[in-house]
Design goal:
- This protein is of the alpha/beta class.
- The chain contains 11 helices and 12 strands.
- The chain is globular, with a radius of gyration of 19 Å.
Length: 315
């Protein structure tokens, strides 16, 4: 049974490095075909997909089969690749991390220049920023930029750990103490708010701060979606429950995505998620957060009973 026949549409992220080995280069179109044949609805290409030698073939295969988000850092070489493409494929996810500095804030001049260039190529970018300890303080300025330049959507995705070339380490991931500081910054920001873009916030605790009183809009959330509506493929074709849960479930293109999804390894992950983490027992809000991000908690916070990194303790 294809993944498109499941009750929950699958969102898959795939790491593609411009510096992949020759063996990986040859496998990329085959991996893309496996993803397309598996019936995945949404695919985000992470890393440097536009700079890979097999980019044209990968974009052709996936662009005909699913909704496609293509990560870009706004490099001139990436814009040149888009210029040379005969037709628009997918949507650009513009990574804002390279446009900011913890001391200087957001480089809005350079960011505006890249947005303008993308629009001239008929791409309306989604801006993305993975929340880290050193960039939480820049979110408000980034929101004002989105408002001033009519950016329709800001995406704050989940962290990427394990086989990663994202430019940060697990020590850079926010903890609850960082979120407490951000809460005070957010209260100051809301005294003079801007017109908000559509927000896609992966982390529940960050979402609670930034969208107070909107629990109903997240009513469909029923816990960690790793290995359910989320999946991740690393740069070697290994499938994981999600980008924040580095545990091999199978490998593309050696196996089909349907076989990997039906295998005991994925079922074991879902069974683990179904159990209440030790650090969550007795929490009155467990029926709201369901333990938060279980991948990060399992790999990075076992000393606190596998509680979400951004949760200070049972409420």
């Amino acid at each position: 049974m294809g993944l498109d026949l499941l009750d929950t549409p699958v969102r898959l992220t795939w790491d593609i490095s411009a510096d992949a080995t020759e063996e990986t280069d040859l496998c990329l179109p085959a991996i893309a075909s496996r993803i397309a044949d598996g019936g995945v609805f949404f695919v985000t290409l992470q890393g440097s997909p536009l700079l890979h030698a097999a980019a044209d073939e990968v974009l052709r295969i996936l662009g005909d089969a699913c909704q496609l988000l293509i990560s870009s850092h706004g490099y001139p070489e990436e814009l040149e690749c888009l210029t040379q493409r005969p037709r628009r494929v997918g949507q650009i996810l513009l990574d804002a991390s390279g446009f900011m500095d913890v001391h200087c804030g957001v480089d809005t001049v350079r960011l505006k220049s890249v947005v303008t260039s993308l629009r001239q190529l008929a791409y309306e970018p989604v801006i993305a920023l993975t929340p880290l300890r050193n960039n939480l303080c820049n979110i408000q300025e980034l929101l004002r930029f989105c408002s001033e330049h009519n950016i329709a959507k800001l995406k704050l995705p989940n962290a990427h750990i394990g086989d990663s070339f994202q430019g940060y380490s697990t020590a850079d991931l926010p903890r609850w103490q960082d979120l407490d500081h951000f809460r005070n910054l957010w209260l100051d920001f809301m005294e003079n708010p801007c017109q908000m873009p559509t927000l896609e916030i992966h982390d529940l605790f960050l979402w609670e701060i930034m969208t107070p009183g909107q629990q109903q809009s997240r009513s469909e959330y029923d816990g960690c979606q790793a290995g359910n509506s989320l999946s991740h493929v690393d740069s070697q074709g290994v499938v994981h429950p999600c980008a924040a849960w580095p545990q091999p479930l199978g490998k593309l293109p050696d196996q089909s995505l349907e076989d990997i999804w039906a295998a005991p390894e994925r079922m074991a992950v879902r069974a683990q998620i179904g159990k209440v983490a030790d650090g969550c027992h007795g929490c009155a809000d467990l029926n709201i957060c369901f333990g938060g991000c279980r991948g990060l908690a399992f790999h990075l916070n076992r000393s606190e009973g596998e509680r979400d990194l951004m949760c200070s303790g049972p409420r």
